[in-house]
Each structure stands twice: as C-alpha cells, then as structure tokens.
Design goal:
With 151 residues, the chain is mainly alpha-helical. The protein is built from six helices and no strands.
C-alpha cells in the first residue's frame, strides 16, 4: 500500500498526456476552437460516469480496458477525426470524435484511478472519517467552527 501515491501520480500523468496528445492530433483537422468546444464536457461526463460506476468494474478489468484502449487511441483518433471532418460540421464532428475515442479511454483510466482510490480508502478509513468530520464542520459552521491548535 506504500506505492499508492506513485500510482496516483502515474495515472494522473498518463491521463493528462493522453488528453494533450489527443488534442494535438485533432487541432490540424478541426482547429483549436471546435476541438476545445465540447472537450471539457465529454471529459467531465466520462469521469463522472467512471466515478459513479453504474456497473462493478474491478481493478483488473479496468486495467485490461486501459491496456486495450491506449494502443488503439492514436489510430482511432485519426480515422474517426478524418471520417467526421468529411461531413463538414465544425461542432458535431469533434463532439462525435470525443465521445467515440476519448470517452471510453477517459472512462477506463478514471475507473482505474477510482478503484485504486477505493482500495487505498479501505486501509485509511480512520483518516477519511476525521477528514469528513472536519469538512462537515467547516461547511456547517464556516472557518470559525474549526479550531486549530497552535498560534
């Protein structure tokens, strides 16, 4: 369990690298404005879906999905982008590309991150209970409700 900060760092870095490379691959096809128009919304919806997890996805299975999706992503980005750019719809083309390529990849990487966090949180339940208590008091009473020892 001592490797969980490194696991989080590697997953976060790989996810940001995937989004950066994906965006750089679509900008020559569509330009920066249509590419970025719905990118955040698709990323957020895929992340929220992975965080809610409507179906049980184990850590092994999400690792397998990520291992399958990562090598396919560059070719899929190019070909789906080319096919949707031929329709000459500036907003709908990148949106379809985001949903078909980046959505599943984001879901797989975020599900892996969520599952890693769940395994860590099971071992650190006491710390999370204390943090929940502090945050609840902070929200309920404001900053004056939390007393700090010291100066």
């Amino acid at each position: 369990m001592a490797l969980w900060p490194a696991t989080f760092a590697i997953l976060t870095f790989s996810f940001s690298l995937v989004v950066f490379a994906y965006e750089r691959a679509l900008v020559p096809l569509y330009g920066s404005a249509p590419t970025n128009y719905l990118l955040g919304a698709v990323l957020l919806s895929a992340m929220l879906t992975a965080a809610i997890q409507p179906f049980n996805l184990s850590r092994r299975r999400s690792l397998l999905c990520s291992a399958i999706a990562l090598p396919i992503a560059p070719k899929a980005t190019y070909w789906v982008g080319v096919m949707t750019s031929r329709r000459k719809q500036l907003v709908l083309g990148p949106a379809i590309t985001h949903v078909l390529v980046l959505g599943p990849l984001t879901f797989a990487l975020t599900a892996l991150l969520v599952e890693t966090g769940r395994s860590v949180s099971a071992s650190t339940s006491r710390v999370s209970r204390e943090l929940h208590f502090i945050l609840t008091r902070l929200v309920r009473d404001g900053p004056r409700g939390v007393r700090c020892s010291g100066g």
